[in-house]
């Protein structure tokens, strides 16, 4: 049994990681989350009362409190997922992305390094700092057959991806300069249950159910590689526990799709699974609306995940069709979860007032 810190464990991917570790291993998880608008403890209801689960509401920029947590829980690994991650928000307000993604990662690295230095030789060799990043740090691909590999040069296009690229460099520098055992993963676009409604797939599902426009940037030809979040959670745990010190692993779903085709797939599944439409709607696809493209929008992402498959034995279990069906069905079956997000009820107790999310704001996943 090991104790694992998961930062950002109340977020979309982080909560999937927490659920996987608690549900499928005997390890202890300490979820460290500031609980910004995208942190939702209702995503962890299934594990909240488990004896191996602990929650600490902490800002990763708070070095003193982080150090106290390391001393109290004595983790064997850190899985660092806490980040601001929405591109449109980074364009409108980049400062919080710089603070959280760069300064926060620095604070966590320093707290981890100081704790690691107190361990004995065996414990130090087993410790891992796993930094979870994105394929957006690579920029976009020109050729239709090109893939991002672990050696692809960084060329971030947005304040979000630039801040993540900076944090990646910090982690590798702490590994090289101080000897801190680090691993880095870069993943493609995730989708699945508990995805916050500002992202493309849940946004389209909820807008369609409400009879609202389904906004698509430009002509919808941007290509993304889609990865089911539970497949990603398995991969992240595998890297954290079996990844080689100093290595980077790309994680992708082998599902390259144009954004427009993703939206049409959601509409197709809703026609089957939710045939009773809002008044005046003949087909869900009729709600598709093309809007002005955003600044610096990357055209194509695609991941070469052969390294993690070859060296650690991971491969995705879900196809795009099976994962999308599970996702759409989950949103249809879990109306209470996303209604609490839309009304702000999910964060009412922690902030003292509702901070609801407007379902028809925001249009893209990444």
Question: What's the total number of strands?
Answer: 12
Indicate the percent of residues in helices: 40-55%
Which regions are unreliable across 5 or more consecutive residues at pLDDT < 50?
351-366
CATH homologous superfamily descriptor of the domain at 3-195 and 226-256 and 301-319: NAD(P)-binding Rossmann-like Domain
- List the helices and strands in order: EHEEHEHHHEHEEHEEHEEHEHHHH
Shape: globular
Radius of gyration: 20 Å
Helix-strand makeup class: alpha/beta
Might you state the CATH topology name of the domain at 3-195 and 226-256 and 301-319? Rossmann fold
Distance between the termini: 36 Å
Sequence of strands across the biggest β-sheet: 3-2-1-4-5-6-10
What do these coordinates show?
This protein has 366 residues and is of the alpha/beta class. It has a domain of 243 residues: Rossmann fold (3-Layer(aba) Sandwich), CATH 3.40.50.720. The chain is 42% helix and 15% strand. The protein is built from 13 helices and 12 strands. The strands form 3 sheets. A 7-stranded parallel beta sheet has the order 3-2-1-4-5-6-10, with helices on both faces. Strand 1, helix 1 and strand 2 form a beta-alpha-beta unit. Helix 1 packs across helix 8, helix 4 packs parallel to helix 6 and helix 7 crosses helix 9. The longest helix has 22 residues. The radius of gyration is 20 Å and the shape is globular. The two termini are 36 Å apart. The C terminus is likely disordered.
């Amino acid at each position: 049994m090991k104790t694992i810190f998961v930062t950002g464990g109340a977020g979309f991917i982080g909560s999937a990681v927490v659920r996987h570790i608690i549900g499928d291993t005997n390890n202890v998880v300490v979820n460290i989350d500031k609980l910004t608008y995208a942190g939702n403890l209702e995503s962890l209801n299934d594990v909240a009362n488990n004896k191996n689960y602990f929650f600490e509401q902490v800002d990763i920029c708070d070095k003193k409190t982080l150090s106290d947590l390391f001393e109290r829980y004595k983790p064997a690994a850190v899985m660092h997922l806490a980040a601001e991650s929405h591109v449109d928000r980074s364009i409108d307000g980049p400062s919080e992305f710089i603070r959280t993604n760069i300064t926060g990662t620095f604070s966590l690295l320093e707290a981890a390094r100081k704790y690691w230095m107190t361990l004995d030789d065996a414990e130090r060799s087993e410790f891992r700092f796993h930094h979870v990043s994105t394929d957006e740090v690579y920029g976009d691909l020109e050729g239709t057959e090109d893939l991002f590999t672990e050696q692809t040069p960084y060329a971030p296009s947005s304040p979000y991806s630039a801040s993540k690229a900076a944090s990646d460099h910090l982690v590798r520098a702490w590994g090289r300069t101080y000897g801190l055992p680090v691993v880095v993963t870069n993943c493609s676009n995730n989708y699945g249950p508990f995805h916050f409604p500002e992202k493309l797939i849940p946004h389209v599902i909820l807008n369609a159910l409400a009879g609202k426009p389904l906004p698509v940037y430009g002509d919808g030809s941007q290509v993304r590689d889609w990865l089911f979040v539970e497949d990603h959670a398995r991969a992240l745990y595998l890297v954290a526990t079996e990844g080689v010190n100093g290595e980077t692993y790309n994680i992708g779903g082998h599902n390259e799709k144009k954004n427009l085709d993703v939206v049409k797939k959601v509409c197709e599944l809703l026609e089957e699974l939710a045939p009773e439409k809002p008044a005046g709607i003949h087909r869900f696809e009729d709600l598709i609306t093309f809007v002005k493209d955003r600044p610096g929008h990357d055209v194509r992402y695609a991941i070469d995940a052969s390294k993690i498959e070859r060296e650690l034995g991971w491969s995705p279990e879900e196809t795009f069709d099976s994962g999308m069906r599970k996702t759409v069905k989950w949103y249809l079956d879990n109306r209470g979860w996303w209604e609490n997000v839309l009304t702000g009820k999910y964060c009412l107790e922690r902030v003292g007032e509702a901070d609801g999310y407007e379902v028809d704001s925001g249009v893209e996943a990444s």
